[in-house]
């Protein structure tokens, strides 16, 4: 997704960043040539856009994986009626007490399905001493809200039959962060137990885009622009401020310990810091990490800055599992 207003001149990379992070900031997003249709009713146009943008996304994600992948068992299953990729690194035993990660992919609530879902989860799955379930949830234009949320909830119900809740982690980045938070709100409201940890990586928890950084970082974040039209497509006429659509506006009491991550150039910076403050106000243990000059999604995953925050996340999860 690209900015929808006149592009702003991005400031130079600040001192202290690694060379890899500087190169990432200088690069252009691969999605600049793929613009969504203006008409939300243009279903064929949206499907063409999703197909083209997914091809670009898959290429980028594949290039970020190690050239020689460690042993990884991968299986596509249907779990509680939902297509799900099950990923288990070779060093992880398939045992009853092995932690289970429910991984919810990003992609502006319209992208990242199919093979991209599996590849998105692969890098993180390889770093975990756990089994990962990557949910290939339904998306617009054919399946608007609440299809994706229903799918995530169905897989979470299945996870609770496989593991005690204290051995489950729910994780989502960007749009996946929206669904991860909304999933736990639905689960709480329906009387289901909470997992050990909730992970929100630059989460899209406010579909109304009301935060300050939606203006201050528009054009500064070269990975992302306003998604308001896509958000409306996803919401399918529902109020964008409903807590299951914008979890930032929910009552958050009862959610599990939560790790949040963003960057100073992230368009969703306001989403993340506001969510952190609301969680704390609700009595939820919440830890916030902000990367210097990081745009949405970090610097690609393999820079020293990315790896430092990945270590922080690993430590947070280990303390709560």
From TrEMBL:
Region named Disordered: 1-43
Keywords in alphabetical order: Hydrolase
The name this protein goes by in its record: Acetyl esterase/lipase
GO MF: triacylglycerol lipase activity
The family this protein is said to belong to: Belongs to the 'GDXG' lipolytic enzyme family.
The Alpha/beta hydrolase fold-3 domain, residue ranges: 102-297
């Amino acid at each position: 997704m690209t900015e929808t207003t006149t592009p702003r001149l991005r400031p130079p990379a600040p001192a202290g960043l690694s060379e890899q992070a500087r190169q990432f900031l200088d690069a252009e997003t691969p999605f600049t040539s793929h613009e969504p249709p203006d008409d939300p009713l243009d279903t064929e146009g949206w499907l063409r856009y999703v197909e083209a943008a997914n091809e670009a996304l898959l290429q980028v994600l594949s290039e970020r994986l190690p050239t020689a992948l460690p042993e990884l068992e991968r299986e596509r299953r249907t779990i509680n009626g939902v297509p799900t990729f099950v990923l288990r690194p070779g060093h992880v035993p398939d045992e009853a007490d092995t932690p289970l990660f429910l991984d919810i992919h990003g992609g502006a609530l319209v992208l990242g399905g199919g093979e991209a879902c599996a590849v998105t989860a692969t890098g993180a799955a390889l770093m975990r001493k756990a089994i990962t379930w990557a949910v290939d949830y339904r998306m617009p234009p054919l399946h608007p809200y609440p299809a994706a949320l229903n799918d995530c909830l169905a897989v979470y119900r299945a996870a609770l039959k496989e593991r005690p809740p204290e051995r489950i982690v729910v994780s989502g980045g960007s749009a996946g962060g929206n669904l991860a938070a909304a999933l736990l709100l639905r689960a709480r409201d329906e009387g289901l137990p909470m997992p050990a940890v909730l992970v929100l990586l630059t989460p899209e928890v406010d579909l109304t885009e009301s935060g300050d950084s939606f203006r201050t970082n528009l054009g500064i974040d070269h990975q992302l622009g306003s998604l308001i039209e896509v958000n409306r497509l996803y919401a399918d006429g529902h109020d964008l401020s409903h807590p299951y659509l914008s979890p930032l506006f929910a009552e958050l009491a009862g959610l599990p310990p939560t790790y949040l991550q963003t960057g100073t150039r992230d368009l969703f910076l306001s989403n993340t810091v506001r969510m952190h403050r609301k969680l704390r106000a609700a009595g939820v243990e919440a830890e916030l990490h902000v990367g210097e000059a990081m745009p949405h999604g970090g610097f690609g995953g393999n820079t020293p800055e990315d790896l430092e925050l990945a270590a922080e996340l690993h430590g947070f999860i280990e303390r709560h599992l």
